[in-house]
Amino acid sequence: MSFYSGVFIGIVFGIGLVIAFARYGNTRSRRRSDLAKTVAAFARLTVEDSKKILPAGFYPTWVVFSERQKLSLTPFLLTWLNLQLDKIWPYVDEAASEMIRNNLEPVLEQYRPAILASLKFSKFTLGTVAPQFTGVSIIESESDARGVTMELEMQWDGNQNIKLDIKTRVGVSLPVQVKDIGFTGVFRLIFKPLVDEFPCFGAVSYSLRENKKMDFTLKIVGGEISTLPGISDAIEETIRDAIEDSITWPVRKILPILPGDYSDLELKPVGTLEVKLVQAKDLTNKDIIGKSDPFAVLFIRPLRDRMKTSKTINNQLNPVWNEHFEFIVEDESTQHLTVRVFDDEGIQAPELIGCARVLLKDLKHGKVENSWLNLVKDFEVQRDTKYRGQVHLELLYCPFGTESSFKNPFDPEYSMTCLEKKALKSGANGTEVGDLGKTAKQKKRNVIVRGVLSVTIIAAEDLPAVDLMGKADPFVVLIMKKTETKAKTRVLTNTLNPAWNQTFDFVVEDALHDMLIVEVWDHDTFGKEKIGRAIMTLTRVVLEGEFQDSFPLDDAKSGKLYLHLKWTPELKFRDS
What we know:
This protein is an alpha+beta fold. Helices cover 21% and strands 39% of the residues. β1 and β2 (70-73) form a beta hairpin. α1 packs antiparallel against α4 (75-110) and α4 (75-110) packs across α5 (231-246). The longest helix has 36 residues, at 75-110.
């Protein structure tokens, strides 16, 4: 593996060094910081920069700068690189196969499904067909005076010889061949730190930055794996988990080039993301009889032990979950939260309704963000523009090192989420919290955000007409979801723009896990008809203390509701 990586480093990075040395002269005699600035400045050159500081015809014909501010290599040079890779591929296969096998086997064992007793390689070679480079670029946004980041686009339809020796719990041995492997993806190389010794960087980190496509088939040697239900899916899932956990970004392997301590390059958690899955609306119905039974799967990294699954809401296209999940963030600049909404099909495989994605780099640190996301069929293929519904999330990203901004009046060993700490900071005052802290040191507990919620129903406007005369007789019903406590306004007759200005108080036992449901109804002599509703968590009012806002009515053709909410906190503990 070291030979394999060294070849790529020498070819690709050597190109950059030749150009940099030609432009800036004898850099070997300068200080380390000067060299670092030189290489970083080279990585940041744009087309306009080149025109200003370099003479015409300075760069070879195979070097171009793209408008995306990535240094790219023309097809001519890519062809040359691929020819060289073809020549050295037999040596790469010999050097890398055994190391890849030794690195992957422990990860396969870690994710081995329970129905298997063992899962090991009996044969592993990379074959005689080398992968092909389809693009090489320097990432300007990731390159600075400390290091340079490169990405290599690669396609590989090889003839690898990979066989697995599998034993089931009942003692049956299964020789399984992994065939027809097709891969398209982007590898990332990070040359860091930059130093004043050749080859001018101390170590290289490599990772699978993007797995665009990976296909393979499984076949029992001398038989068909389809004759063993569940085995094929379990093995395939294990292989994909192993690749995700061992080499896929932000996981990276560090290859020292020069002696030194490179522990600072290792993957480390950088923060936590708290997600409240509130609800979804207008979901596509996947059932012929009745309605879908939706549930959601959320993850940052698609590993089984890191994926979170909500409860299933039966026969509902507008499910309300109000469930809280917490995720570890390892690289906020590139990672994203994925939400997939499925229809539960019982004993059959669940059917995907739609998916959505949130880029973590777009979230503000320490601020709760309220997001409605449109569901799509697929992130890569955008031709399908069918509306599949929306999912509602509350998101709070807390980078490590910012804990001091969330004042914790309790003992540090107490278990609180960032959201609870933030709520405590906004609601804690003086001796009351301090006294609670003194009585709570005997036992580890979670905090409950308890208090009084005051809701003023101010008015509504542009309600849809439901009476024969083109008007309505609206009134409002308020419901606290956990306790099902209810309150109701007076009825206002013959109006589509009612003004109530009525206030109701609710004692809330656990505000961060409760919801307020506000329903607008039309009163009729012989009954009542629902006009629409608004559903909201209490997160915002707990953190802000008081606010006034308008809320569009779901399930209604038109209309919005004006509310004023106020929170009076009273903190207490809950046994863990």
